[in-house]
């Protein structure tokens, strides 16, 4: 089976037919399903959508149970956690709903981990890391755009000379380069290529 448009988070099962991995949807399986918006709601109290999944957390005074429900806990109420808590061997521990968050110095609120600056995020060639609250994503570098080639998504060079997104002078030639472009004044003209006289 070949899928000319590609299957980003899924597998090609027939001619241009994708079977999406759990948590993803769309013709090319490139859209994240917001499980928090589904009926019935997957979490009893609060829900946080994550890339391809979701996390449940409880209101203050409740603790998250293994089945995703929230149980009343007097000890949790006393600790005053931002995103609910759990009791481990008699000890109350505040929770963060995502691996991209960590407990702050007060042990009750969650602060963002910048995966891009700490090096925890690895983006493939021609992609740059963009930090978000609780996570990150990889975006094509400037001069590249996301395109589907032979069933896979890749960041490919934008030919600024063809797309006419260059800023070359009317009296200059545009030369495409990998991820960028150059401007060269035509014969009989001199200048930077952006300005030719």
From TrEMBL:
GO MF, any single term: calcium ion binding
EGF-like domain boundaries: 32-71, 112-150, 157-195
PROSITE patterns: ASX_HYDROXYL, EGF_2, EGF_3, EGF_CA
A Pfam entry, by short name: EGF_CA
Keyword Methyltransferase applies: no
Subcellular location: Secreted, Extracellular space, Extracellular matrix
Keywords: Calcium, Cell adhesion, Developmental protein, Differentiation, Disulfide bond, EGF-like domain, Extracellular matrix, Repeat, Secreted, Signal
InterPro entries: EGF, EGF-like_Ca-bd_dom, EGF-type_Asp/Asn_hydroxyl_site, EGF_Ca-bd_CS, Growth_fac_rcpt_cys_sf, Nephronectin_domain, NOTCH1_EGF-like
Keyword Disulfide bond in annotation: yes
A GO biological-process term: cell adhesion
Record family assignment: Belongs to the nephronectin family.
Protein name stated in the entry: EGFL6 protein
Species in which this protein is naturally found: Daphoenositta chrysoptera (varied sittella)
Gene name of the encoded protein: Egfl6_0
């Amino acid at each position: 089976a070949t899928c000319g448009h590609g299957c980003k988070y899924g597998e090609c099962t027939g001619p241009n037919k994708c079977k999406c991995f759990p948590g993803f949807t769309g013709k090319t399986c490139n859209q994240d399903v917001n499980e928090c918006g589904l009926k019935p709601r997957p979490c009893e109290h609060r829900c946080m959508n994550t890339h391809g999944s979701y996390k449940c957390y409880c209101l203050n005074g409740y603790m998250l149970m293994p089945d995703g429900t929230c149980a009343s806990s007097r000890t949790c109420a006393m600790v005053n956690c931002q995103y609910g808590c759990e009791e481990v061997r008699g000890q109350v521990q505040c929770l963060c709903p995502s691996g991209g968050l960590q407990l702050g110095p007060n042990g009750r609120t969650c602060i963002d981990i910048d995966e891009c600056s700490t090096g925890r995020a690895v983006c493939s060639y021609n992609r740059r890391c963009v930090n978000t609250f609780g996570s990150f994503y990889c975006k094509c570098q400037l001069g590249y755009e996301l395109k589907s080639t032979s069933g896979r998504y890749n960041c490919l060079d934008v030919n600024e000379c063809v797309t006419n997104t260059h800023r070359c002078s009317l009296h200059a030639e545009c030369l495409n380069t990998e991820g960028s472009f150059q401007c060269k004044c035509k014969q009989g003209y001199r200048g930077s290529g952006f300005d030719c006289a």
